[in-house]
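Need Transcriptional regulator, AsnC family's 3D structure for a figure. Predict it.
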Amino acid sequence: MSERSFQTDHIDRAIIKALQKNGRESYKNIARELGVSDGTVRLRVEKMIKNDYLKISASVDPLFFENCIMAQIGINLEEPANKEVMEQISRFKGVQSVNNVTGRYDLVIEVFVDSRSELRQFLIEDLATISGVRGTESFVFLEAINKWADISD
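Structure prediction for Transcriptional regulator, AsnC family:
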């Protein structure tokens, strides 16, 4: 993985902290809190977004929805994980993240789906289209604290 040249400082981190508390907080209020201009906040946020350091989005509590399922799935591959396989998996409905990890699995992915049948489709049908998947193990979330997810199409 290549090293990125983008650097942050204490003001960037303070801006991020403010946005994590309330992603809709105005730049003017954040600037007032930090003692900088609202233009400084706006420019820094834009720079962090442009450099893929920051993403501002709406997330939901996946366990709020009684019938939805949030799960982590460990995947063993025949060959070491590569970016192409990770990208293919990331495009399936419900995939929140695809992670190349150390330990007993090659990949750990997180999915948020509307039903058991969607989880079944993902595990049995979707992953079957990925060549080199040797096996999977699923961990369905029963409870979580401070867990957020994106709603898929």
